[in-house]
Amino acid sequence: MGQVVLANVPVSPCFELTVSIVGTRKLPDNLTLAEYVTLPVSMEVTIYMDYNATSPLEPQVIRAISEALQDAWGNPSSNYIAGAKAKVIINQSRESVARMVGGKAEDIIFTSGGTEANNLVLHTAVEHFRRSCRAAEQGEGHQNGNYDLPHIITSNVEHDSVKLVAEHLQKDGKADVTYVPVSKVTACVEVEDIVAAVRPNTCLISIMLANNETGVIMPVQEICQRINSVNKQKDRLRILLHTDAAQALGKIPVDACVLGVDYLTIVGHKFYAPRIGALYVNGPGTRTPLYPMLFGGGQERNFRPGTENTPMIAGLGKAAELVTCNLSDYESHMRSTKLYLEERLKAVFKDKIHFNSQYPGSDMLPNTCNVSILGPTLQGWRVLSNCRRLLASVGAACHSGSGNRPSHILLSCGVPSEVAANALRLSVGRGTTKADVDAVVEDLRETVQLLEEMD
C-alpha cells in the first residue's frame, strides 16, 4: 500500500488525521484530487461553522502577539525600555478597543475574559447598592443596617456568566433577581416587561446585546432610554445598565454611547482576537461605580490588579482595530453567506427544515443560522456526530456538558421540545464561502439520509 503526502508529511492511508482549514479551502500541498477522494473519512477537509463559539486569530493579530512576546516582554510598570514598550502597546490597545465600542480609552478595563467582566458588573451593582444605602442611613442618623436587598433584572436567555452569578447572589441572600422571559413570538425581551419589573430597590439591568443561539438582537438602546427616564425620578437610586456584547462585536455596529449603557462586556475570542476580554465602563469610579473583586497591585487603576498580559492585550487591540476598519465588509459578507446557507437548506430539505433563528419583527445577527432538520432520529448531537466534514454545535459551548437535552434558550423562545432537540447552530465567519456552504449542505444531506436508513 503506497503512501500519500499531506502537507509535506508522509501519511499512511490508514492513519487517522483530521485536516481543519478555516475559511476558503484548497487541496493540501502535494495531494492530488484522486488521492484526496480516496482518503479515509477522518482525513477529509473539515469545514468550521461554529464562529459563535470561538474564532481563529487573524494573521495580523498573531503578528501583534508575536511581536509583543519578543519585543515587549518587560513589566509595563517598569521604567526601562522593555517595560516602556509594553506600556505603549497596552495604551495603544486600550485606544483601539475604546474606538471599536465608541468609548474613551479611560473607559476600558482589561480582564481575563467575558466571564470576569460580567462577574465584575454584578459584584459592583450589589456592592454599590449596599454602600449607597449605608450612606443614606448615616445621613439620616440611622445605623440599623436594615434595608432592602438589591434587585437585579435580567432575561431568561442570558449567558451563564450572568445567569449563574445572579442565581448565586440570590441563593446567598445577597440580591433578589427577576428573570424577564423573552417573547415566544419574537424571541426578544420586551421593553415594557423590563420597565414593569423595576422596583424601588432595582440596582442593575443586565440584558445581552445579541443571543448566541438564536442570533436575535435585543432592544438594549430602547431599554436604556426608558430606564434613564426612570432614573430621573427624585430620591431614587440610580439603576445601572449593562449589556454583554460578546456575540455582537465584529458582526454589527456597537456603540456604547448610542446604546446608553453604563457597562459593556467585550470578549476577544468572538472577533478573531485571543481569549482575553475587557469591560467598558462609562467613567469608571467617577460617573459609574466600579468595585474590584481582586486586590493586589495598582494595575488597571486598581479596578483589576495583576501584571498586565501584554501580548494578549496587543492581540485584542489589533483585532479591535480590524473591526473598526472593516466591519461593513465583514457584516455584508457574513449576511450574504448566511442567506445563501438558508436558501440551500430550504432547497435541499424542503418541508423537513425548521429555522429557529427567524422571528418576525426581530433584528438578527448576520452570521447565525439555528436550524432543525425534522425527524425522529435526527437529534442535533446525532447528526453532528455523523457528519463527515461539518464542525458545528447544537448550542452554546458552555452547555456542551449538559447532555443531550434540548436548549433551554430555544424552549424559552417558543421552539417545541421535539424541534429544539434537533437543533444545529451554524454560524459563519469572515472567510466562509459559498463553496463551504454547498459542501456543508451536502454533508448534512448525506448524514440525514444515512440516519434515516439506519432507523
Automatic annotation (TrEMBL):
Cellular compartments annotated: Cytoplasm, Cytosol
Protein name: Selenocysteine lyase
Function: Catalyzes the decomposition of L-selenocysteine to L-alanine and elemental selenium.
Cited InterPro entries: Aminotrans_V_dom (IPR000192), Cysteine_dSase (IPR016454), PyrdxlP-dep_Trfase (IPR015424), PyrdxlP-dep_Trfase_major (IPR015421), PyrdxlP-dep_Trfase_small (IPR015422)
Tree of life domain: Eukaryota
One Pfam assignment: Aminotran_5
Class in the EC hierarchy, top level: lyase
Main location: cytoplasm
Keywords: Cytoplasm, Lyase, Pyridoxal phosphate, Transferase
GO cellular component, one term: cytosol
Similarity comment: Belongs to the class-V pyridoxal-phosphate-dependent aminotransferase family.
